[in-house]
Amino acid sequence: MISVRPRITSLPRELRQLISLSGRHQSTSSSSSVSSSEVSHFSALASSWWDPHGPSRILHLMNPLRHEFISRCRSSVGSLPSSSPTSPPSQALDTSGPEASRTLRYLDVGCGGGIFAESAARLPTTLSVTAVDPTPDVINVAKTHMRRDPGLVQSGRLQYLNTSIEDLSPSFLSTNLSAAPTTSTSPAAESGKTPSQTQIDIVTMFEVIEHVNSPHQFLEQCMQRVKPGGWLIGSTIARTLTSYFTTKLMAEDVLRIVPRGTHDWDKYIMAAELKKWADEQEGWGEWRVMGVMYVPGVGWREC
């Protein structure tokens, strides 16, 4: 069924926002939302993706907050057990839980070098993580880093695909789930068929929507992969004067924390704009938003 729950209408005033939607929306749009200029830009950043002190440092620091937000969304409806840690999962694969407890399928869209995807694959409730990105260089970086952990490779829970969300094959789940346990509530499991592309429990899109050509089309494509009752969860930068000062003027031009051209302020999206569009779509469920800000010397803080 498609879950429809009371919507949270409070909007963030802060620099960044984590957003989530539950339910499922049907769409037939298939043209690509990928920006060739963005692909070229992130290719140049690929080699430094896993440097905790490099241009992706802020993303590394934000990862625990991503897991915390997902945990809140899941626990708020009582349908799924909360297992997300308040700190990133260990670099060693978590094998503490029985295989029967691994039920959650993730699809990480615009995964980059795999910061979130790797950590999600190590959670004790994770059945699989499929991570996709249209930039070949960053996918190669992600695969190389994954191979540093033989246990993660042998588990088969994490796969990287060099593709866009629009070009993602409907059979992508079968690549690493052919021998994995399935839940009794899955229609595909009951019929003995391979799980379909709409049986993803959690689709994530962290720091992606501000880099695509068509945000609305991109959201539709992502939501098509979410199972009824699942979640579409992401983070993006609010289009405010504060974000222009911090992410463009200071981070790019003054402090050079990230290369120039990493961000396009005109592509930043306000939570109110996302919510207004989502409210107009049929089949989109509960809306949640959490404002967060990075405080130098302190880290990410909810505001």
Automatic annotation (TrEMBL):
EC id: 2.1.1.64, 2.1.1.-, 2.1.1.114
Coiled coil (UniProt feature): none
One annotated GO molecular function: 3-demethylubiquinone 3-O-methyltransferase activity
One Pfam family it belongs to: Methyltransf_23
InterPro entries: SAM-dependent_MTases_sf, UbiG_MeTrfase
Enzyme class: transferase
Binding site for Mg(2+): 207, 210-211
Pathway: Cofactor biosynthesis; ubiquinone biosynthesis
Residue ranges, annotated region (Disordered): 77-98
Membrane topology: Peripheral membrane protein
Keyword Magnesium: yes
Binding site for S-adenosyl-L-methionine: 66, 110, 133, 206
GO cellular component: extrinsic component of mitochondrial inner membrane
Cofactor(s) needed for function: Mg(2+)
Localisation: Mitochondrion inner membrane
GO biological-process terms attached to the record: methylation
Catalytic activity entry: a 3-demethylubiquinone + S-adenosyl-L-methionine = a ubiquinone + S-adenosyl-L-homocysteine; a 3,4-dihydroxy-5-(all-trans-polyprenyl)benzoate + S-adenosyl-L-methionine = a 4-hydroxy-3-methoxy-5-(all-trans-polyprenyl)benzoate + S-adenosyl-L-homocysteine + H(+); a 3-demethylubiquinol + S-adenosyl-L-methionine = a ubiquinol + S-adenosyl-L-homocysteine + H(+)
Keyword field: Magnesium, Membrane, Metal-binding, Methyltransferase, Mitochondrion, Mitochondrion inner membrane, S-adenosyl-L-methionine, Transferase, Ubiquinone, Ubiquinone biosynthesis
CDD domains in UniProt: AdoMet_MTases (cd02440)
Domain of life: Eukaryota
HAMAP family attached to this UniProt entry: UbiG
Protein family membership: Belongs to the class I-like SAM-binding methyltransferase superfamily. UbiG/COQ3 family.
Subunit (UniProt): Component of a multi-subunit COQ enzyme complex, composed of at least COQ3, COQ4, COQ5, COQ6, COQ7 and COQ9.
Function description: O-methyltransferase required for two non-consecutive steps during ubiquinone biosynthesis. Catalyzes the 2 O-methylation of 3,4-dihydroxy-5-(all-trans-polyprenyl)benzoic acid into 4-hydroxy-3-methoxy-5-(all-trans-polyprenyl)benzoic acid. Also catalyzes the last step of ubiquinone biosynthesis by mediating methylation of 3-demethylubiquinone into ubiquinone. Also able to mediate the methylation of 3-demethylubiquinol into ubiquinol.
Name the record gives this protein: Ubiquinone biosynthesis O-methyltransferase, mitochondrial
Lineage: Eukaryota, Fungi, Dikarya, Ascomycota, Pezizomycotina
Gene (name only): COQ3
